[in-house]
Amino acid sequence: MNVEVRNPAGEPVALDYIISTQVKNNATHKITPEAHFESEGSYTVWGDRMLSETNKKPEIIRIEGYKNNTVVFTRMAKVASNCCHVEWIEGERNIVVASE
């Protein structure tokens, strides 16, 4: 599951990494963007590799985007899983941050 990160002019913002934290137990995942997604401003924040952590129940995650080791945004989202995949339930997926 991805979020799109743009500046106010609509241009992609290059982040250093994202930290997604499962709120109930404070388990964190540091996610380094892949170049082809970063150039488009698209970042994975939760994925099927975290399937076992959602246990088919909705989970709240905190998503923090970092640039130059500084948090440039923090958002909350709700995710869940079915038998095979995680799914986005609610939360902002198009994020606008201040210009670089």
Brief write-up:
The protein has helices at 35-38, 51-54, and strands at 2-6, 17-22, 27-31, 42-44, 59-67, 70-81, 86-91, 94-96. It has 100 residues and is mostly beta strands.
Task: Write a structural description.
The protein has one domain (2-96). Helix content is 8%, strand content 49%. It has helices at 35-38, 51-54, and strands at 2-6, 17-22, 27-31, 42-44, 59-67, 70-81, 86-91, 94-96. Strands 3-2-5-6-7 form a 5-stranded antiparallel β-sheet, with no helix packed on it. A hairpin with a 4-residue loop joins strand 2 and strand 3.
Task: For the record, give the distance between the C-alpha atoms at the N and C termini, rounded to a whole number.
Answer: 25 Å
Number of helices: 2
Please provide the ordered H/E string of secondary-structure elements.
EEEHEHEEEE
Low-confidence stretches: none
Cα-atom radius of gyration: 13 Å
Described by strand count, sense and barrel closure, the largest sheet is: 5 strands, antiparallel
Mean pLDDT: 85
Structural class: mainly beta
